[in-house]
Specification:
Structural class of chain B: alpha+beta
Structural class of chain A: alpha+beta
Strand order of the largest sheet of chain A: 1-2-3-4-7-6-5-8-9
Number of domains of chain A: 2
CATH class of the largest domain in chain A: Mainly Beta
Distance between the termini of chain B: 63 Å
Distance between the termini of chain A: 67 Å
Order of helices and strands of chain B: HEEEHEE
Number of strands of chain B: 5
Number of helices of chain A: 3
Radius of gyration of chain A: 20 Å
Strand content of chain B: 35-45%
Largest interface: A-B, 30 and 26 residues
Number of helices of chain B: 2
Strand order of the largest sheet of chain B: 1-4-5-2-3
Oligomer: heterodimer
CATH architecture of the largest domain in chain A: Sandwich
Shape of chain A: globular
Helix content of chain A: 25-40%
Strand content of chain A: over 45%
Helix content of chain B: 10-25%
Radius of gyration of chain B: 18 Å
Order of helices and strands of chain A: HEEEEEEEHEEH
Number of strands of chain A: 9
Shape of chain B: elongated
Chain lengths: 180, 105
């Protein structure tokens, strides 16, 4: 009787893990095609890396998601980001801090709206394509700092999230570089 | 044993009573779907910006999000739309996501 119970429990547990394993397989397979789109234009190819998240500030519960658009004939890529925060802020600039280099960019407001109890700040920034490659091509966790009139907001990313995010994005950026 | 039977009964009932999470897509797979397809093309020329919007569904019970063309265009500050694509993604009927990509200037 007890044996049957154990067998049933094990079976139920395995049933639960099958979808999780399937999901893990698709994630670790690193099929980068689902992380970007490309569109042929008159003046080059327009690449779009879909929104990524992971940069957070746990103290103030601030969250940042970003996407990258790059037209191969340009030197700079457009990095649009959404920042969610409870506080009222006027964002002036954004700084990407890596191990060896940091690059800053002024930002342009797209819109600001409310989302539940938080503010949704949507801004656009320009960053050199080579700086973008350097930023993602580093194993140590980088930081993003938003400079606002109300003070600086430091956003950090977990090591595991960065490992996956940097690996995928670096692969896409390398692909873009080869096809330029 | 009673607990396990109860668990199987509840899980079974939940699966039978709830519908699967389905997503709009030209083709669909039972195990996994990820298909991109066209929605619209305009006569506007060139695109330098791309915006996205999405909606998600869990088990076909809860579905949230704003996957409108308007939301996607707004996210990238697009005022002239060149073309629009959509992407349907679903996993085993547990999770489904519908995404809209708007290209323009």
């Amino acid at each position: 009787m007890a044996n049957n119970q154990v067998k049933m429990a094990c079976f139920a547990r395995h049933l639960f893990f099958v979808p999780l394993l399937l999901l893990t397989c698709t994630i670790n397979g690193q099929n980068i095609s689902k992380y970007y789109t490309s569109s042929l234009q008159e003046n080059g190819t327009l690449y779009f890396i879909i929104p990524q998240s992971g940069f957070n500030n746990n103290k103030i519960n601030g969250k940042l998601t970003y996407d990258i658009t790059y037209l191969t004939t340009n030197d700079t890529a457009t990095l649009n980001f959404s920042y969610f925060d409870m506080a009222n802020r006027d964002i002036d600039s954004v700084v990407f801090i890596g191990v060896n280099k940091k690059c800053s960019s002024s930002v342009k407001k797209i819109f600001i709206e409310t989302k539940k109890q938080k503010w949704h700040y949507r801004y656009s920034s320009k960053i050199l394509f080579t700086d973008l490659i350097n930023f993602f091509n580093q194993s140590d966790n980088p930081k993003i700092i938003l400079y606002t009139k109300q003070g600086a907001v430091e956003l950090n990313i977990k090591a595991r999230t960065w490992k996956k995010q940097s690996s995928v994005t670096t692969k896409i950026l390398t692909l873009i570089k080869y096809n330029k | 044993m009673k607990k396990v039977k109860m668990l199987v009964l509840v899980a079974g009932s939940a699966l039978l009573l709830s519908s699967c999470a389905v997503v709009k897509s030209p083709l669909s797979g039972v195990w996994y779907t990820q298909v991109k397809a066209p929605v619209a093309v305009t006569s506007n020329s060139g695109s330098t910006k791309v915006g996205t919007s999405e909606a998600t569904s869990i088990l076909g019970i809860i579905a949230t999000g704003d996957a409108s063309i308007d939301a996607a265009a707004k996210s990238a500050g697009i005022t002239k739309i060149h073309h629009v694509d959509e992407e349907g993604m679903s996993v085993l009927g547990f999770f489904a996501r519908y995404k809209v990509f708007v290209y323009g200037e």
